């Protein structure tokens, strides 16, 4: 098996921030024994999110099991999701910033599904995916992102949900 060094194109402060979030979580749940330290766990998750490699590839690169890599990613994504603003908070932020308008747009995030899995098949895009709504400032800066809905859900219905 060949290994490569992880080098996601992100600023170092992103890694430092995420490692701090993980470190505080571990202290809160009194979890002292882990295979990877918070910095390495943060790097593993950033590589997964940025480069889209499989869990097997990431696990091999970090010298851990595939299930451990999956657990680390799942745990860290949940920590980040808790820190995200609610829709009300995003709207208040936009109002305080004095934006003349904000942009609400939906997008389909492609996912790997079998053809028989109809709930996630989008007829409009002719692919399987999850519908995500994004609220953005006039300059395109994301203010809020919705939870994922099945691909066939129309943007207007998703925005109402």
UniProtKB/TrEMBL annotation:
GO MF term list: metal ion binding
Domain spans labelled Transposase Helix-turn-helix: 36-85
Domain of life: Bacteria
Keywords: Metal-binding
Keyword Metal-binding: yes
Name of a matching Pfam family: DDE_Tnp_4
Cofactor: a divalent metal cation
Transmembrane segments annotated in the record for this chain: none
Domain DDE Tnp4: 104-159
Protein name in the entry: IS5/IS1182 family transposase
Organism: Streptosporangium album
